[in-house]
Amino acid sequence: DTAVSQTPKYLVTQMGNDKSIKCEQNLGHDTMYWYKQDSKKFLKIMFSYNNKELIINETVPNRFSPKSPDKAHLNLHINSLELGDSAVYFCASSQGGISGNTIYFGEGSWLTVV
Amino acid sequence: GNSVTQMEGPVTLSEEAFLTINCTYTATGYPSLFWYVQYPGEGLQLLLKATKADDKGSNKGFEATYRKETTSFHLEKGSVQVSDSAVYFCALSDRGSNYKLTFGKGTLLTVNP
After folding, report:
1. Chain A 71-90, residues with CB within 8 Å of chain B CB atoms
2. What is the spatial distance between Cα A16 and Cα A60, in angstroms, rounded to a whole number?
């Protein structure tokens, strides 16, 4: 019973392609996130949605577009992939608006752009 | 803005050694503090957390105490095992940042038998 699941786990694609990463959580949380982990393991938030509404958008290129069809899903679409987009992308969820609430992470999607 | 500074790695220890990973923070509000662990090839797991000053979070033999006066949340374990080898991240969240997690840069721990 995976709490936060994301697919695919591994993705190798060519520059210029468009790709999507899907995320689903079965925890009943109302807030979902996308984080990016670079080659030096540094983690930075990209987006956050609360009840399908965008609440955090952290200086991410327009080529990245999140979509939340319902509060259990948050997908990430990336247009015109560049070499620098190679990273691990983590989806996460929490019950938002409450101090100290744990954010639960998926297992990550390893994206390699060649 | 918020920021987290944790000791640079990598840290290499022998089994049963004592572990300390230092973490200090800067926050505009009153944050909650977390330690996450990432085992090789896996995602992030919450290790422990503390939500107010002087709280001690603990799990799997790891401990960290929320020290408001020194803005610190150092991670400790009395006797590490090979299976503790992983990357450890200190993080904070607060209301002013919509409860997003701000992470430190991570500390790679390797425990040798």
Report:
1. 90
2. 17
- Alpha-carbon distance of B87 to B39, in angstroms, equals 6
What's the CA gap between A113 and A97, in Å, rounded? Answer: 36
pLDDT tens-digit map of A34-58: 999 999 999 999 999 988 889 888 8
Chain B stretch 41-100, residues whose beta carbon is closer than 8 A to a beta carbon of chain A: 42-46, 49, 51, 87, 89, 93-95, 98-100
Distances (CA, A) of B40 to A41, B32, B43, B89: 11, 26, 8, 14
Write out the two tokens for A97: 């608006």
For B50, other C-beta atoms within 10 Å of its C-beta total 22
Q: In this structure, which amino acid lies at residue A50?
A: N
